[in-house]
Amino acid sequence: MNDKRMSEGIEARVLAVSVGISAPLLIKAASPPVTVQSGIRKRPVSTVEKPAEVEVGRLGLAGDEQADLSVHGGLDKAVYMFASEHYPWWQDRQREADASSSQRALTFGALGENLTTVGLVETDLWVGDRLFIGEVEFQAESPRTPCFKFNAAMGYSRAVKQMFTSGYAGVYLSVIKTGVISAGASIDVLPGRREVSILSILQRLRGRAQREA
Questions:
Q1: Cβ neighbour number for residue 132 with a 10 Å cutoff
Q2: Distance from first CA to last CA of the chain, Å, rounded?
Q3: Structural domain count, the chain
Q4: Which of 72, 77, 143, 203 is deepest in the core (most CB within 10 A)?
């Protein structure tokens, strides 16, 4: 049931499950710089090496917080999934911005994601597709649309625009059936009606970002 990636011999699975609490985040680009609350900084609590179980409710993972519920969290953005395949690209963008000199290499959770995966990327999914991970059932809802806090978390000012233009954005999931998940679990995809692809939304967002450049 792992959709087309299975046919390519790549098993879709979870590499890490990460959570974060709301904490101060310095926005250096503001004039003057300000500190805001953000839950963007996530840390793995379940890895392939240490696959602890994490409870998943209708509003997300146990121990995970969002600071601004007007744009983050909620039923349609309960869990944020990001493909590990994009990590090298984002690491290169940090180096180009000379941000890596003061930062460690990106680790799972660094993009603010709850689920870091392999074998499943945004363009494999359509809105309404069901994802089965362990005993939990998710539904693909939309690609991520980052706010200014993503620039601060990544350490340079073009990160938000690059997420729009690259399409390496990850996918928000809603929770259809609650339960527990752990790193190492396989991801099974059950296609929905497939009327709106995640790719089509990404292309629309990319076009808007380019027009506003």
A1: 18
A2: 41
A3: 1
A4: 143
